[in-house]
Amino acid sequence: MSQGDDTGTRPARLRSLLFAPGNRPEVCAKLPRSTPDGAVLDLEDAVPPKLRAEARPTVRESAAKLAREHPEITWYVRVNSVPSEWFARDITEALDPALDGVVVPKLDNAEQVAAVVDALSAAGLGHLHVLAGIETAHGVENAREILEAPGVAAGYFGAEDFIADMGGRRTAGNAEVHFARSAAVMAGRLAGVPMIDQVVTDFRNDDAFAAEAAEARNMGYRGKLCIHPSQVQLAHDAFTPTSDEVARARRLVAAHAAAAAEGRADIDFEGQMVDGPIVAQAQHLIELGDPT
Amino acid sequence: MSQGDDTGTRPARLRSLLFAPGNRPEVCAKLPRSTPDGAVLDLEDAVPPKLRAEARPTVRESAAKLAREHPEITWYVRVNSVPSEWFARDITEALDPALDGVVVPKLDNAEQVAAVVDALSAAGLGHLHVLAGIETAHGVENAREILEAPGVAAGYFGAEDFIADMGGRRTAGNAEVHFARSAAVMAGRLAGVPMIDQVVTDFRNDDAFAAEAAEARNMGYRGKLCIHPSQVQLAHDAFTPTSDEVARARRLVAAHAAAAAEGRADIDFEGQMVDGPIVAQAQHLIELGDPT
Amino acid sequence: MSQGDDTGTRPARLRSLLFAPGNRPEVCAKLPRSTPDGAVLDLEDAVPPKLRAEARPTVRESAAKLAREHPEITWYVRVNSVPSEWFARDITEALDPALDGVVVPKLDNAEQVAAVVDALSAAGLGHLHVLAGIETAHGVENAREILEAPGVAAGYFGAEDFIADMGGRRTAGNAEVHFARSAAVMAGRLAGVPMIDQVVTDFRNDDAFAAEAAEARNMGYRGKLCIHPSQVQLAHDAFTPTSDEVARARRLVAAHAAAAAEGRADIDFEGQMVDGPIVAQAQHLIELGDPT
């Protein structure tokens, strides 16, 4: 989507971020049907390694067409991780300037983000924002510096890859990722960027998705990664704020603007101390609630 | 309460810390009835913002009278947060020298604690200790430096404000605050100060309070914030140590003193390595168990 | 066991680490019967403090005999903690060169590990590795630096001592140690050393052990501390990898070796970024699955 605000590349809302394999243009073409807030043409986990290099021009072509035809959606390509053999040419060959951002998986530290931003800039794609994947032990350890790095506008927590990196095993109960999932969303709050919660791989289980989405929202997440179109509406149901929440956020933003006009930075708003990230959170919530 | 020990301003025990709205002197006057360990005349969340400034002299007058008449209770006023418009005059106009300490909400870092201590000192109130509120993402991130800052004698974890700061939602199950609640109590242990656990807002639900208090005690918390007199006895039931626990703590303190007299700092006491914070913990437990 | 690989002192597998009181040679002599991966002659918590000094020669004699007769087991002595009155002479008088390593409880920081390594070296025992006990608040806070310290080849999380250090209480549900237990295993992953999970004290409850072992494996732990021979087989059942897991680990190690031969350090292997600790994890898993 075109950004429509003066913060440049911040995504408006990402209650749902729907992935499709980038090497399958016919599947990517269907991404808009479920009206996700964000959509990702994936060049990483959803594409067999042997097909990734050759999929780049296909991804670029699909991205250009979809982003032009569906400006109501925030469009991404997910490249391969920075240390991988694919990364450099993913940036130069798979990204179209019509995209809104690039999803970068398995970020371990802020240096890797700087490498992404440099590569984007060198490719004339400096207007794309980075949606940062926190899904390794190092990534969780360094989540705040990653999410605070210039160019990062949002992040996601990836449970499957995190637990693979730990040498553990995923369960439906999520106990084994509770610590990392909590640390990641708190890092997002400290960095002032919205965080998107892990995939539910059992995509036929609507109840599990709804329960996990509610859990994520309680923790402070703003949306869910989706791997099936049927998950999009469930995510919207879970993450759309109520009209009361939107009204409060509007009052908060107005109070902050009034205080700023008087030269005050921090205010106590209805019992909550308001700083920059809280204002960003409120603006995000207003956009989440905006039916446009 | 008068301190009665040589550590100056350390609160003896805070199994319960009962809050009342500072602008309602008739409610504050009833604080002693349920015999809480600590009592707080609140100038922050319990008082509508428009009434906070005018409530200061009322709070000061109530505090002076109550602290004089009930030395068996540790008396506090909760001021507004350091960056708020109210903080400076809360310190100079709402605090009476007869108080034991000041509760400071939403502390984000040690610099804010230093500002509190400076303000107290400038107001001739340097003998008051700080009970530090850890209830923001920054506060949790910086909990150890906040709780180790000079002047801080205890802390609390505030779940409601923390989750508001995260943009999340509170649930009865507490999963969404488990990470922060655990990080806060561990920071208290590292800093050597007792930590008080979150409010149970559903004050008619005794079972929920008892269960949450047991959970808190298991984690290492020493007491509960109370918002209703009926919660005080429940907190005492949960946090009063057994006579065996008190006897062991007395042996530990004696063994440490004997070792110190021989020039040894750390000892292995009945299988537990004993350092300064563990001695402080044992002394606190002895005081908790002391029926005086 | 003799190490049989070029990494020097790394333990091959520790699905089970069975403890016996070092002052009871007749109990220690039975350690091999349940065929644990690792066995520990304990000089710490399992021995009454008054008997620890006199138990040292007994421990050394038992260790020498058992390590010689049972090279299929990794042999340890657990000494007392570094600041304790026993530590220095535990190293010089209770350790036999035939041991594989030394278990050091309640490590608080990397300086203490350096003191252990220095003491081992001075005693001509520099070939023994350190199995580091993370079981204090400071230990959890500093877990990564402890586990990364030279000489450390593995670690364990000790729930009982951790919660005693916190002044809390243990429960069967483990909620009170979830944060620390999660932080410790993540620190192990970052340091590239295998971590062993807490004791189940209720040693007659096989179901509880099996459930907790599964939970630990999900989190990324590689084995369990055992206090009864009956727990050893349960641990092996829980932590032995499947043949599919072993096969994948072999492919990963081979792919990494091939990439290294071409001068590449990091590779993307079947969707997982592979760095040094991941290779170590895979090698460990291969050894876990090896029926030898």
Structure description:
Three copies of one chain form a homotrimer. By secondary structure, chain A is an alpha/beta fold. Chain A has two domains: 16-239, Alpha-Beta Barrel (TIM Barrel), CATH 3.20.20; 243-289, no CATH class. Chain A is built from twelve helices and ten strands. Chain A has helices spanning 25-28, 49-69, 87-94, 110-122, 137-141, 143-148, 159-166, 178-191, 206-219, 230-239, 243-261, 276-289, and strands at residues 16-21, 38-42, 74-78, 101-104, 129-134, 152-157, 195-197, 223-226, 267-269, 272-274. In chain A, strand 9 and strand 10 form a beta hairpin. Mean pLDDT of chain A is 91; it is low at 1-8. Chains in contact: A-B, A-C, B-C. Chain A binds chain B through residues 144, 178-179, 182-183, 185-186, 189-190, 215, 217-222, 264-268, 270-273, 278, 281, 285, and chain B through 44-45, 49, 80-81, 83-86, 106, 136-138, 140-141, 161, 163-171, 175-176, 178-180.
Order of helices and strands of chain A: EHEHEHEHEHHEHHEHEHHEEH
Tell me which protein chains meet in the greatest interface and how many residues each side has.
A-B, 28 and 30 residues
Spatial order of strands in the largest sheet of chain A? 1-2-3-4-5-6-7-8
Number of strands of chain A: 10
Shape of chain A: globular
The radius of gyration computed from the alpha-carbon positions of chain A, rounded to a whole number of angstroms, is: 18 Å
CATH class of the largest domain in chain A: Alpha Beta
> Percent helix among the residues of chain A?
40-55%
Backbone structural class of chain A: alpha/beta
Unreliable segments of 5+ consecutive residues of chain A:
1-8
Number of domains of chain A: 2
The name of the CATH topology of the largest domain in chain A is TIM Barrel
